[in-house]
Amino acid sequence: MAINWYKYSSPAAFYPLAGRLIPWFGWSAALLTAIGLVVGLGIAPTDFQQGEAYRIIFIHVPAAWMSMFLYLVMAFWGAMALGFNTRLSAMMAQSIAPTGALMTFIALWTGSLWGRPTWGTYWAWDARMTSELILLFLYLGVIALRNAIDDPRRADRACAVLSLVGAINVPIIYYSVKWWNTLHQGSSVSLTAAPKMAAIMLTGMLIMSVAAWFYSIAVSLYRVRAIIVERERDAAWVNALPEVRAT
Amino acid sequence: MIEFLAMGGYAFYVWGAYGVTAAVIVIEILAVRARRRAAMEEARLAAPEDPTPTVVPGGAQ
Amino acid sequence: MHATGTEAVGVSASASEAVDRAAAGDAGGAILPAIRWSLVRDLRIALRSRAELGVQLLFYVIVVTLFPLATTPERNLLLTMGPGVLWVAALLASLLSLPRLFAGDYADGTLEQIALSPHPLPALVAGKILAHWLTTGLPVVVLAPLLGLQYGMPGDALLVLTVALLLGTPILSLLGAIGAALTLGLRAGGSLLALLVLPLYIPVLIFGAGSVDMWRAGLAVAGNFSLLGAGLLLAIVGAPFAAASAVRIAMD
Predict the structure, then answer these.
(1) DSSP A53-69
(2) Domain membership flag for residue B52
């Protein structure tokens, strides 16, 4: 049973496939989130140093991981779009950007609320949070560029170039911010130290990370279906869709 | 239950974090559904009122 | 912008002639002649509007002057702030002048000619970037030590600052060119360019401004300079290609 994967590189073929995948990823994400919350908020013990405040990491760390991972995936689809000139690759990149930005925001918000009780300040200018903030700027730049260009094909290619340039720069930016932070450390404690992880805490973080990943996949697939309809709306197959005819 | 909600005195921070995250997720889901609805609406409006039969997948007409 | 209508036509005509002449010269190994051609041309055009260059430099001076006025003339604070302010102002000055890189040629059609020429576009873009740095970055490098005196910086710190700016400002032009090409002809133009390019500038800012802090702390500055140098080499090799592809994307 040889699956012709190339068949799915056409928006028309991918649309129904994505539609079938969304419920699987969506409900799995919901289930994993429920389990993760039970583990994180209920089963995992109170931290000796940070008290209950540490429970924020069950959102903060998965969100931060997703924010970085999604940027790389977005840049990957951009590279595919540039290399193979496929519309669908560019549409995938287009659909990932808002979710990635949102994950970055969540990481920043939860990180800030975690920092206040733990280190006394909402914003500590530590390497990871500062890099995360710059990552948010990179995401917003890609989104802003997409909105500023009217021609979808030009937008596809421009955003692909931008996200590739950004992807190359992310490690450089992180390294430079880390260097800057150590240069000015002074008397501040090591702000990147998370509590010593009991195994159950790690499990909780892992479950929430997979949940975040599946959620991102589900939302991106849902969004890309809307994008496909937006951009292919003159195609006959779109007009034949029951959802379109029924509205 | 009250202890759970109090989160050892850190209720503001913990629930502030979890709460905003939940809100943001809900907003994203609502937004993406609204985008889909708008796309369907636009596609319907853009559809040519074409009586001539065209070959379409699924045999719909 | 710099070119008036008649001037633009003249420039456009001479551009296609010059490109044809250069093409007739040698087809292969056309990199250095291409760089030289666009460098000389852009320098000539920029120097025609010396006033505009002067204004950009004045912007730099004014921004640097603003910070003590906004904070305090207290000596120690100025000493701490100085390198950072001089660097941030250099970033902003670079941003301000970047649209000039492609916009004029884009508006009068020359850029299309350049893109269609048989010469490698990355080389032509590299020449433009070099011209941009010579007219924007280099003056900042020359002026910064003088302005550093306003911040009470001693001679050795000023030397470190100057070397860092010498290594860093070309990187600003190189990275900025990518942003300028991506945002060619867009309405949002300038502020969008800033949003795209400033995050990429941050490592240059950190290592550049940080070199003076390192010097003051008595630590070896060679590491910073090596990093800036490495970044410069990476940018020289990569940015013209990225900018050239961005130009092609904008032209289609």
Answers:
(1) GGGGHHHHHHHHHHHHH
(2) no
Question: What is the rounded distance in angstroms from the CA atom of residue A40 to the CA atom of residue A36?
Answer: 6
Q: Is residue B16 situated within a structural domain?
A: yes
User: How confident is the model over A138-158, as a mean pLDDT?
Assistant: 96
Range B5-26 burial, b when 16+ CB lie within 10 A, else e: eebbebeebbbbbbebbeebbe
Domain boundaries of chain C, sorted by first residue: 5-251
Chain mean pLDDT for chain C: 89
Beta carbons of B10 and A233 less than 8 Å apart = no
For this complex, say whether ipTM is above 0.85.
yes
Dist. CA C88–CA C168, nearest whole Å = 12
Q: Report if residue B24 sits inside a domain.
A: yes
Q: What is the largest CA-CA distance in chain A?
A: 66
Q: Give the distance from residue B9's alpha carbon to the nearest chain A alpha carbon, in angstroms.
A: 8
- Taking the C-alpha atoms of residue C214 and residue C206, their distance in angstroms, rounded to an integer, is 11
What is the spatial distance between Cα A200 and Cα A42, in angstroms, rounded to a whole number?
11
Using CB atoms, pick whichever of C188, C202, C238 lies closest to residue A134.
C202
Position A191 scores a pLDDT of: 47
Asked if B36 and A229 come within 8 Å (Cβ–Cβ), the reply is: yes
Q: Is the pLDDT of residue A194 over 60?
A: no
The Cα–Cα gap between C209 and C41 comes to 33
- The pair phi, psi for residue C125, each rounded to 5°, is -65, -40
Q: What are phi and psi of A69, to 5 degrees?
A: -60, -45
| Position B1 in a domain | no
Q: Are A96 and A77 in contact (CB under 8 A)?
A: yes
Tell whether A225 lies on the interface with B, counting CB pairs under 8 A. yes
- For residues C83 and A99, what is the distance between their CA atoms, to the nearest angstrom? 38
List of chain A residues whose C-beta atoms are within 8 Å of the C-beta of residue C214: 183
Of the candidate ranges A164-173, C9-18, C114-123, C225-234, the one whose mean pLDDT is the lowest: C9-18
Q: What is the pTM of this model?
A: 0.88
C134 to chain A, minimum CA–CA distance in Å?
A: 24
